[in-house]
Amino acid sequence: MHPDRGFATLRAAACALLIGATGTSGASAQDYPTRPITFVVSFAPGGLSDVPARFLGAEMQQRIGETIVVENRPGASGINGASSVLRSNPDGYTLLVSALSEVQNLHYLSVPYKFTSDFTPIGKIADGPTLVLIVKGDSPYKTLDDLIRVAKATPDKVTFATSGPATSPAIAVSQLNAMAGTKIVDVPYRGTALAATAVMSGEVQGAFVFYPSAKPMADDGKVRILAVASRERVTQLKDVPTMAELGFPGFEHNAFVGLSGPPNLPPAVVAKLNKVLNETVHSPSFRARIEPLGMVPPQGANTPQDFATFLVKETEYQAELAKVSGRQTVK
């Protein structure tokens, strides 16, 4: 997804991430599971990690032979839910639906763990969605260039809704300001859905929001999508240019959802979970459920090692974004 930045360091960190899978528990894939499994989602119901987690649980439980319960434990930008899984027994019955916050938080907040070494990677659930830049449907801004021209002419007058500090929409606003030389004001809301609503109502001039929050409003003409923050154009928005096409190379903000466990999760349990996970996420029915959300199933073998490597690389990329955006990072 992003250029490699030293294979030696990457390999070492990825291997460290897999240490959690070397537990000595006597649990075996043959016996596991014998009771319900809990998927912990670190955010509120209906969010970017919650919806695919529920899709996954509904289909995966049919294959694994036990009930899968999705439990929301929101708070502290996802830290509360992740911390509860970190403290859980490494028996495969409490798992974390990991998301973008896992690779972002440590660059902005005080986090009581290192995700790339303290959790056991199982596999990726889905890639996407991407951030899109929106303005009100009847806004005078027809292009990103129109918006930037006004933002430069009237510093601190153009406002963008975000979903709070240390989130992709807020980071994207800071990155745009740094790259375009603007002073767009960040106005925090409780989530990208509310941020999109603020744009639609005219409370703010624009916002970076995740695709699912923008698409229904765009279809109704209530907001206009000026750009997508992905490497390539989005299939459902083929006429909308990428930020790179508009003169902002490397301006990429893509979410993901994965499955992780506490440290020392037995290898046999990890292997069984990964096998059933891949059977589920690559099924036509699962793809049909997530594609309307701007998500796609993971590519490749999607092994625990693949997910470990991805997390390390994505953590490094988020560190670069923190520097480019000019946000204050945690030392």
TrEMBL record:
Keyword Signal assigned: yes
Signal sequence range: 1-29
UniProt superkingdom: Bacteria
SUPFAM superfamilies the UniProt entry points to: Periplasmic binding protein-like II
Pfam families for this protein: TctC
Gene3D superfamilies, alphabetized: Bordetella uptake gene, domain 1, Periplasmic binding protein-like II
UniProtKB keywords: Signal
Family affiliation: Belongs to the UPF0065 (bug) family.
Name of this chain's protein: ABC transporter substrate-binding protein
Source organism: Rhodoplanes roseus
